[in-house]
Amino acid sequence: MSQVKALVFDVFGTVVDWRTGVAREFAAFLPAFGRADLDPFALADSWRALYQPGMEECRSGRREWTRLDVLHRESLEKVLAANGITGASEGDLDHLNRAWHRLDPWPDVVLGLTRMSRKYFLGTLSNGNIALMANMAKRAGLPWDAILGAEPTRAYKPQPEAYLRTAEILAMRPEEVCLVAAHNGDLRAARKAGLRTAFVPRPSEHGEGQTKDLGAEDPWDWVGADFVDLAAKMGCA
Amino acid sequence: MSQVKALVFDVFGTVVDWRTGVAREFAAFLPAFGRADLDPFALADSWRALYQPGMEECRSGRREWTRLDVLHRESLEKVLAANGITGASEGDLDHLNRAWHRLDPWPDVVLGLTRMSRKYFLGTLSNGNIALMANMAKRAGLPWDAILGAEPTRAYKPQPEAYLRTAEILAMRPEEVCLVAAHNGDLRAARKAGLRTAFVPRPSEHGEGQTKDLGAEDPWDWVGADFVDLAAKMGCA
Q1: pLDDT in tens, B196-230
Q2: CB contact under 8 A, B145 and A151
Q3: What letter would DSSP give residue A129?
Q4: Which of A27, A111, B91, B149 has the highest count of CB atoms within 10 angstroms of its CB?
């Protein structure tokens, strides 16, 4: 395992708590539209539910690869329409769409990443686009060495190209790169592409009723209780 | 001018002293090949002289866009052959080629960038590829928010696409992005694409006999004596 040189990270759910962050921004947005009756967490879940279908249009080839900020904006308009929210200005919509740029990391993340950064090259391997990932990192103090993933590779996980082209950009062999994720499916696809794998559970990503990804489902190369524990298990004091 | 949100930087020459860094690595490389007689600075200049011709093959469309690490490696082999240096192993060549990943910044850079980072989004807009730029940044402590430029845009400066697609990736208008460079030609191309411009002189980039880019040749939006001075002039205490 000592050949691993780079750790690359799933971000939504693994690094940041998207549900709480997006719900917080809906809660701030709704009163101006007279809809403080709506549940901001339910709206966050509805928005996120359109995430995979939006990317699937690109993965399938039915649509040219398109940045996540654009897909997010399209799905936001659907969510608002479905809930009868009308009259938002272009500026309102753009600000709300950028809620994803303003997500907060889980409490262990900054310390864990800072320790891992001493020994490994750290990159994102997210389906988020470069501006989204970089704005989030600047605000939250995430010490990435590079923003990689969907936009530089023009592929959406779990397409194998998303993993393989990320290793190629790093000029590393796949086995020199380890994906860190809270999602077993993402790790399965990364392992299939030849990457190393590390799992960290995020049992409240989907709220209290979360039923999936509560633990490691396969014998991943590393499993950490959180990022600080994973750092220790990967040799970063 | 207050609309500028992101500063993007030329790197070779503007941020790092490539000539001294590459010469230092040639000086360490030559003795094992019995060629300590050769001038390492002259070899650095010879290598750099093949930089523009290599990229021109890609700009012209005669060759598909190719990473700078690959172009550097091809030109290194030409320089070694032209100087009768033979017998270097694959590992030797790879290590020497990565001299560009190990360049040191000019003395004012880290302090200047750290100050600018408080107010602006900071990115690279270099012809260097992502791994090259990110490895350099990690080693030297350069606080980039994102590695942009040639590889994400698949264009080599001064092609307009290199500037315009960088602004597009940032989701900013060209006039919200300012190129910082020690090269008047790079700034001319950036201004033509609609970016703002900032000049910092690097009068020893090419050694003692440097004749070009000794000062600002056009009325650039900002001119700093160095990065610390530029930070102050751009409102970053």
Answers
A1: 999 999 999 999 999 999 999 999 999 999 999 99
A2: no
A3: -
A4: B149
Rounded Cα–Cα distance for residues B83 and B30 (Å): 11
Q: Tell me which residue of B162, B177, B134 sits closest to B55, measured CA to CA.
A: B162
Residue B17 touches chain A, beta carbons under 8 Å: no
CA dist., res. A134 & res. A152, Å (int):
13
User: May I ask the CATH architecture of the domain A6-17+103-233?
Assistant: 3-Layer(aba) Sandwich (3.40)
Would you list the DSSP string of B98-146? GGGGGPPBPTTHHHHHHHHHHHSEEEE--SS-HHHHHHHHHHHT---SE
Distance from CA of B225 to the nearest CA of A (A): 27
B105 pLDDT tier (thresholds 50, 70, 90): very high
How far, rounded to the nearest angstrom, does the alpha carbon of residue B26 sit from its chain's CA centroid? 19
Q: B156 CA to chain A: closest CA distance, Å?
A: 16
pLDDT of residue B2: 61
- Which CATH fold would you assign to the domain A18-102? DNA polymerase; domain 1 (1.10.150)
Q: Is B171 on the interface with A (CB under 8 A)?
A: yes
Task: Return the domain boundaries, chain A.
Answer: 6-17+103-233, 18-102
Q: Residue A131 and residue B69: Cβ atoms within 8 Å?
A: no
**Rounded alpha-carbon distances, angstroms, from residue A230 to A109, A157, A195, A197:** 10, 23, 17, 12
Min Cα distance A141 → chain B (Å) is 10
Give burial (CB, 10 Å; 0-12/13-18/19+) of A35: middle
Q: How far is CA A6 from CA A16, A125, A169, A226, B189, in A?
A: 20, 11, 12, 18, 35
| pLDDT single digits (tens) B33-47 | 999 999 999 999 999
Distance separating the N- and C-terminal Cα atoms of chain B: 17
- Sequence-separated (6 or more) residues with CB below 8 Å from residue B47: B22, B72, B75, B76, B79
User: Which among A169, A124, A130 is positioned nearest to A10, based on CA atoms?
Assistant: A124
Report how far residue B102's alpha carbon sits from residue B140's, in angstroms, rounded to the nearest whole number. 8
Give the A:B interface size as CB pairs under 8 Å. Answer: 49
Quote the ipTM score. 0.94
Q: Which of residues 198-237 of B touch A (CB under 8 A)?
A: none
* Element (DSSP H or E) covering residue A7: strand A6-9
A207 φ, ψ (degrees, to nearest 5): 95, -170
Q: Tell me yes or no: is domain B19-102 CATH 1.10.510.40.
A: no
Type and span of the H or E element at A199: strand A196-199
